[in-house]
Please model this.
Amino acid sequence: MGVWGFYISTLVIYFGVDLLSGISLNLQFGYAGVVNFGYIVFQAVGAYAAAVVVLGPSGGVASFQQYVFGARLPFPIDLLLAAAAGALLSLLVGLFSLRRMRRDYQAAVLLIVSLIAIQVVSADVPLFNGANGLTGVTWPLGQIFGIAPVPNSWIYAAWVLAICAVVFAAVVWLSKSPWGRSLRAMRDNEAAASAMGLNITALRLQVFVLGGAIAGLSGGLLVEYIGAWSPGAWGYAETFVIFTAIFVGGVGNYRGVIVGVLLVPVIFLELPRFLPAIGYPGLIDSLQWVTIGLAWMLCLLFRPRGILPEKRLRARRPAPISVAASAPVEGGV
Model:
């Protein structure tokens, strides 16, 4: 496989990981109205969880880095634990931040949690090797099939897309279920939803934990591919890239999420790389974030509902009862 083949397959893998992030955030924000500015923390904990359960003990070959737990579990148990770690952290954070708080306060608390988490992980070396992060995460398909990562990245890309398809189908089904309609009712009018008997706190916590599990899964998939993870990979700005994607694509529309993720994290972030070297060193990298900011502002100005807006929910009328069916049976009591 040539350089371009490896580059395109890598983009496909990143697209799949970002799509999982978009699905998760769209479920939380687009359907439930939970503004999760700390989303990247839940992806990071999934990446760390998947890493420490395949690296083995921190002594011996891995003595150059320190981390907790340390095990050698087979694939795909690491992905299951990554999703579980994201769900568990979401449960703990949600119990604190989602109870009896307004939405704007919740968003501020989650942003503060992400900033604190980055500082704690960077400073506490025995936890996940501090600011240097973890490296040496084994290629998962090499354990099973004995194949190298570089010439066979398309196989991993297919694996990531298959997981995306399963998660996408499951989340769309949930969003169309009575539970999903309850989320939309809560998002649109909390007071009315509460008056109808919906438990607002429980709904928020449920969707927060489910979104956290998907975030942890995406982190596990990413760290398996790149083989390393550090605090520099999960700054709070990464969360706003995914928010931009779902705003551009269409909040509350999962097909719009696909379009937004394809445009923002993949195309918009990659196009500046092909520009000729101009200006001062680092200008091209800065243009990536300028592009993201412009995309969000232009979307809010000219297309506030996104490229594919959320469809209006239409309830079906119950079928009319025929006169013959409602008439009493002759001879009946």
Summary: The beta strands are 134-135, 228-229.
